[in-house]
Specification:
The chain has 217 residues and is α/β, with parallel strands linked by helices. 18% of the residues lie in helices and 28% in strands.
Length: 217
C-alpha cells in the first residue's frame, strides 16, 4: 500500500469536544474508522478496551476501501459497542454505505460518533460572501493551490478529496436514513487555521465542525 502524506491536525476544540463525548460512552469494543490523520486510541480507559483502527491506508490495524459503493467492513455483525468516524464521511461518494456497515457491526444499543466539516459555518458563510470557496468545501482532487482537500500519494497523484458538503440538517437526515438516533449534537466553535471562537460560544449549526453522538435504532 502506497504511503500517503497525511494532513496535520492541531489540538482544536473539535478534538477537545470529541474527547469529552468519547469519555462519556465508556465502551469496551471500539472501532475507529478513518483514523490515519488523528486517532483517539490514546483514550483507552484500561487494558480491557479493545480498539481497532481501519482506514484506506496505513497507519491502521485493518486496511479497507472505505469509498467503495459495495463496502463491506471486514468484521462480524455486532462486533463493536462504539464506532468513531471523524472527518471521514465528506470524503466518500457513498457515505450511507459506510454508516450502514457501522450499524451492522454495532451491537444492540451500540453508539456511533461522527464529525463533519459544516458548509454552513460562520467562517464558510464569510468566505462565500467574499467570493471565495471555503478551504474544506468539496473540491475532489483538485491541485492544492485550488483548495484541494485530498491526500498526496507522491508523483503528484492526489486521492480522497472532499466530495460531499454537509450541514446539520443533511448529516442528521443521513443518520436517520441508516437508523441512528442522535443523542448529543455539539460544535467545534470557529476554526480558521487556529481556534477563533471557542465551542461554547457558537451553536453547532454555525460551528466549523459538527460532532454527533448517535444511538443504533
Amino acid at each position: 500500500m502506497t504511503s500517503l502524506k497525511r494532513h496535520e491536525v492541531f489540538r482544536s476544540d473539535r478534538i477537545r469536544v470529541t474527547e469529552g463525548m468519547i469519555r462519556g460512552v465508556g465502551a469496551n469494543r471500539v472501532l475507529e474508522v478513518g483514523a490515519g490523520d488523528y486517532s483517539f486510541d490514546y483514550m483507552k480507559w484500561d487494558n480491557s478496551v479493545s480498539w481497532t483502527r481501519t482506514d484506506f491506508a496505513p497507519p491502521c490495524d485493518v486496511i479497507c476501501n472505505l469509498g467503495s459503493e459495495r463496502l463491506v467492513l471486514p468484521f462480524d455483525d455486532a462486533s463493536f459497542d462504539f464506532v468513531i468516524c471523524t472527518e471521514v464521511l465528506e470524503h466518500l461518494l457513498w457515505p450511507q454505505r459506510l454508516l450502514a456497515e457501522a450499524h451492522r457491526v454495532l451491537s444492540a444499543n451500540g453508539k456511533i460518533l461522527v464529525s463533519i466539516p459544516n458548509i454552513a459555518s460562520l467562517s464558510y458563510r464569510a468566505a462565500w460572501m467574499l467570493g471565495r470557496v471555503p478551504s474544506c468545501a468539496a473540491s475532489g482532487n483538485l491541485p492544492p493551490e485550488l483548495g484541494s482537500t485530498s491526500y498526496s500519494k507522491g508523483d503528484n497523484e492526489l486521492v480522497g478529496g472532499h466530495v460531499i458538503d454537509f450541514n446539520l440538517n443533511r448529516i442528521l437526515r443521513l443518520l436517520e436514513l441508516v437508523r441512528f438516533a442522535p443523542m448529543a449534537i455539539k460544535g467545534s466553535g470557529i476554526i480558521w487555521h487556529r481556534q477563533v471562537l471557542p465551542s461554547w460560544m457558537v451553536p453547532a449549526s454555525f460551528a466549523s465542525n459538527i460532532i454527533i453522538l448517535g444511538l443504533k435504532a
